[in-house]
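Justification of resources, computational component.

The compute hours requested in this renewal are based largely on the per-chain cost of generating structure records like the one below. Each record pairs the submitted sequence with a full structure-token output. That output is archived, and it is also reused by downstream analysis tasks.
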Amino acid sequence: MDQESIIRSLRKQMLIERIAFGAVALILVICWTVGHFRNAKSLILVDGRPIVCVPSASDANDILARIKSQTGCDPSEITFRQDVRVERAPGNTYAVSRHKAYRTVLRLVSPVVPKWAIIVDGRPAVAVPSREIAGEVLETAKRKFGTMAHNLAEEPQFKQSVTVDVAAVDPAIFRKNADEAVKLLFSESAPVVKDAVYTVQKGDIAGQIAARCGVKLADLWAMNPDVNLNRLQVGDRLRVKTTAARPKLTVVVRDLVERTETVPPPLQQVASGSMYQGKTYVLSPGAPGLRKVRLQTIYENGRRTGSEVVDEQILRAPVPRRIAVGMRRRG
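The structure output for this chain reads:
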């Protein structure tokens, strides 16, 4: 082998050695840098505000991952309603334990997950895996109360504004199937205390009224200082406080009923100059009429809330009851 070939071989070998040495050095620098930053103290920030400092970035990420995993949904789908970030902390920042940091962050962040949601009056009421399941939930809700009517006047309607769309929702309202979603929609939310008026009926006593309205007898006395509860009269009106549970969705059902009922005869008074004042005389007893009425009874989630007449047909007109009224002055 000539001298020129030997020189080229040596140069090639030196180049390979330099490249290998440089690669090893670069890997060592990268490993040192990653280890340095990973082991450096880190801050968890919520909406740009430093919340807590933990010993390392891996601790911070583990805390956020733990919060996501406890929602019951796929952690990869979970985000936070707030802007949550992890940054390197200044060297003089005091780091707390992971347990204390977890409790602090948990109070301040709200995990959300993008799901198909049934939105009631602008607020997600329940979330499900697909649009089809959401439609099934709404149809099931209508059938749940629609079957209670004997003769539906129209398809059951929702009292609130109801839409279906993808939304970032609290994982707590996510349900995997239609049956569970329907149960959540009609579960009772926090009770609402409101003032109401109770009209005393025959046989009522204060203790029974208090028990019926869910209030203590002492509170009933306090709410009605001007009424003697020991001497109630039929027709007395008492202030009471009642609790009304509010389901997330209200289904309105109209039940159509036809019935025949009597119409009382109208009263006609005829002035009589031959009779003294205060005297009356029945000229004609009259006769009741007859009418056919179509009545809609309105139910909300199975509870009757009112009724209205939608059609009326007079079958027999009533005959007026005529009474003569004395007009003559005495003396």
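Helices lie at 3-38, 57-69, 98-108, 131-146, 178-185, 206-213, 217-223. The longest strand covers residues 303-316.
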